[in-house]
Amino acid sequence: MADIDIMNDDLSLLLRNRDYQKALEMLREWESKDEFDPETLSGELLLAISRTYYFGKRYEKSREYLYVFENNYPQMCLDIEYIEQKDKLLILEDKADQVIKLLFTAINKNKNENEKYWLILYLGKAYFWNGEYREANRHFRKCHTYYLEAGDDHMLGLTLYMMGYLAFQRNMLDQAESYFEEALSSFKKVKRAKQMGNCYNLLGIIKYRTGNYEESKKYLDLARSKYQFCSSINNVLNCRIAGARVEMFRGDYDLSEGILKETYREAGGLNYRRAQALSAEFLGEICCRRERYGEAEQWLTEALELAERTAPRGDVAAEVFRRLGDVQIELGKLTEAEATLSEAEKLCNHLDDKYELGSVFRARAVLAIRRGDPETARSWIDESVILHRTINERFELGCTYMK
Question: How far is Cα of residue 60 from the mean position of the Cα atoms in its chain?
Answer without folding.
Answer: 20
